[in-house]
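no rush on this but wanted to send it before i forget. theres a chain ive been looking at and ive put its sequence and its fold in token form underneath. please have a look and point out which stretches look like helix strand or loop to you. thanks a lot i owe you, the record is right below:
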Amino acid sequence: MVVLGREIRLPADVMFGHIKVANETGNQSDFAVQIRGRMRRAHEVARRHLEANAKRSKEVYDVRLSFHKYEVGDVVWLLHETRRVGISAKLQKAFDGPFFVKGKDI
């Protein structure tokens, strides 16, 4: 509906009569106006559903997200984000530490 402005007729639908075949007699400009209106409504519905889905996805993501607030004296580990060439990633240390937090920049 969103792409073509009408429901797609599948062979099974035509055989078993699930979709009413539209009467294609009439003015072509009226047909174009009808298709444009159907597509506009379909796009509005799709846009609303996409917005609702984006909000729901953000809520699910935000639930799993956690922010850490470190204080002076906390024990932390330093993550190695880069790997050394020539050594298997499995054999390299992922973290260095433990280190103590000395101060905070605000």
Summary: The helical segments are 11-16, 28-64. Residues 28-64 form the longest helix (37 residues). The chain has two domains: 11-64, 68-106. Residues 68-106 form one domain.
